[in-house]
Amino acid sequence: MSTIKQMFEYYGVRFTASRERDRDRGEVSATTIVMAAALVALAISVGAVISSRVRDKANSLNLG
């Protein structure tokens, strides 16, 4: 887990630095795009997992 934590810290620092630098230029950097794509992918995967678990639980209910 420490490698993942270091990776998130690195990208957090890069995202912050990129955001501050972009305020001056008004441009979107590659780091910002990568972070946005990663957050979208994370949200989609979390949604898929939750949907799958709810569907499995619903299918396991004995209604008869």
Architecture overview:
- The protein is an all-alpha fold and 64 residues long.
- The chain has one domain.
- 86% of the residues lie in helices and 0% in strands.
- It is built from 2 helices and no strands.
- The longest helix is centred in the C-terminal third of the chain and has 31 residues, at 30-60.
- The protein is elongated, with a radius of gyration of 19 Å.
- It starts with a helix and ends with a helix.
- The mean pLDDT is 84.
Number of helices: 2
pLDDT averaged over residues: 84
State the major sheet: none
Number of strands: 0
Total domain units = 1
How much of the residues is beta strand, in percent? under 5%
Low-pLDDT runs of 5+ residues are: none
**Whole-number radius of gyration?**
19 Å
Order of helices and strands: HH
Structural class determined from secondary elements = mainly alpha
What coarse outline follows from CA principal-axis ratios?
elongated
Report how far the terminal alpha carbons are from each other: 45 Å
Q: Helical amount among residues, as a percent range? A: over 70%
What kind of oligomer do you see? single chain
Keywords: Membrane, Transmembrane, Transmembrane helix
